[in-house]
Amino acid sequence: MEKRVNDSDRTLASLLEACALGDRKAFETLYRKTAPRLYGVQLRILGVPALAEEALQETFIQVWRHATEYRSNRGAALAWLTGIARFRALDIRRGQRPSDPLETAEAQRALGESESAAAVFDSLTRGDTLQRCLERLSAPARQCVILAFCEGYTHDELSRRLATPIGTVKSWIRRSLQRLKLCIDELS
Amino acid sequence: MNYRNPQLRDLLAGEYVLGTLRGAARRRFERLLQTDLELQDRVTDWENRLLPLSDSTPPVTPGEHVWPRIAAAVAGPARAPVPGFWQRLAVWRGMAIGAALTSAILAVLLLVPALRPPPGPGLDAVAVINDAQAQPLWLLRVDTAQRVLEVEVLRRAALPAGKVHELWLLPGGAQAPVSLGLLPESDAGVLPIDDPQRLLAAAGLAVSLEPAGGSPTGAPTGPVLYQASLHLL
Is the pLDDT of residue A61 over 70? Predict the structure, then answer.
């Protein structure tokens, strides 16, 4: 598929290359440029600043140690960084037990969830490839994809929140992924 | 599960990136990712397809105390590798991918007669060190009879001014890396081997970036740039 590249991403890619050669100044610049965005993504998944900061810290330590593994010919630097940030946040989210603060944050958010998925969808630029392809999915399938990606929901959590059998949730997600791939690759 | 079915592979990659692949299924997938470059490309493609979804999340400035902690964690020429660092590195997917690429390039080197290292009585093992784009940088030949490691520069590696590339033996387990010496930046060089048996038994090799003259502490101080494994002949 075509890679998403622009000037600011080229800057990030060259900062990553400098990090790979041990350039600490470049590492700090990379942090200043991307931390707010990655932290926002992690805070959304974790809901608690202390946990999100832990995730952010682990993310950048991993970025420094593995900067050599980023391949600029394969995809956007921001997508690579976001992938690491999301997995750190998801791992921390899963390590939490029900008594942990996450549960409270989750309960606080619970009421607004279907609205939050809709808000994410509405915030996508109209006419952009992913927006157009998500628009073609059914509303509950779209909600599953967005809640899983943006909030870190498991199949089980989606099933409970949407009051839908888990088998249905799984097949919504499977079908959504197949349709999204076909649609995105066709439009881009 | 049949991991050769292209549609299934793509679906698993999508679920992995979406975050809904969990538990044993995720661990199996990650094990496969270590050596399967095509699967890694599918993951990257999904990360790029879904990236606009994270554009919609508002950026939030983290607390001022986060950066100093990160800087401290990656700091310092005096810092010895933290316990377990080498083991953690070993499970990171990139290392195995590097090893797979090395094997592929090594296979080519051994099959093409012109490139094949001349057979000698003491030639016991070879290794190729590649960069992140899988371009070969150094060819290493271990000659235990002469107790030397012959190093040939295949392609010049990027190097900031005032720095050198240091080669390390990774003994495996919890043991600290052992310096094998500084790598030549052009042409070829020869590094003496103190303990040939330890080298042949090594879990792997690594190259770190160090100040001129090599690591001042006896342990890698700069980032580990490249990794390779020895192939016994």
Answer: yes
